[in-house]
Design brief:
By secondary structure, the protein is of the alpha+beta class. The chain has 8 helices and 4 strands, in the order H-H-H-H-H-H-E-H-E-E-E-H. Helix 7 links the parallel strand 1 and strand 2. Helix 1 crosses helix 2, helix 1 crosses helix 6 and helix 2 packs across helix 3. The mean pLDDT is 89.
Length: 182
């Protein structure tokens, strides 16, 4: 039930954003709201609490997010408060982002690397993937020290593995295969 409510709310905002020709702007704003909740968990807790009166939650939304110049953003956040979905905001943002990416032709991917990538490295990787996939690419990074070096990228169910660990494994398999022949 919650999942269908989340999707319906995300779709409703998406439809409004399309009408306003601001799909990307709303995506950015929702990510900003999500980031503010991650930085200040008590804010999300306050907005999702049954103990806080709705008028107080609305006032808080207006104070914090009212400066963002998007016509429907604060109204949407207030609807989430009304329907007690604010504690599922990350799911709402994710559902909206999926719709927005589909509309904008953006493919999302995860980049795994042994150490955090520098901005230049990430930009080059993004450019390379955009050329290869003939689409805009949005990448989220994760550090995975067990990879030793290189990067592994997962996009659209495909994995592009350029890690040192995969190269070592390929070499091991090749050496074992050659060793078995002799």
């Amino acid at each position: 039930m919650i999942s269908s409510a989340i999707e319906k709310h995300a779709e409703a905002l998406f439809d409004l954003a399309k009408e306003e020709k601001a799909v990307k702007d709303y995506e950015t704003a929702l990510q900003s709201v999500l980031l503010s909740f991650e930085k200040e968990p008590s804010l999300a807790g306050c907005l999702s609490s049954y103990a806080v009166e709705k008028k107080d939650a609305y006032h808080l939304i207006d104070e914090i997010y009212g400066k963002i110049p998007l016509k429907s953003l604060t109204s949407f956040l207030k609807v989430l408060v009304d329907h007690h979905l604010m504690d599922h905001f990350a799911d709402v943002e994710f559902a909206y982002r999926k719709l927005a990416n589909e509309e904008l032709g953006v493919k999302e991917g995860l980049v795994y690397s042994a150490a955090p990538l520098k901005e230049e490295e990430l930009a080059l990787l993004k450019k390379t993937l955009e050329e290869k996939l003939q689409a805009k690419v949005s990448l989220e990074t994760r550090s995975e020290p067990s990879l030793l070096g290189g990067v592994k990228v997962a996009i659209d169910g495909k994995v592009y593995d350029g890690t040192l660990l995969s190269k070592v494994e390929a070499l091991r398999v090749r050496l074992l295969a050659q060793g078995g022949k002799e």
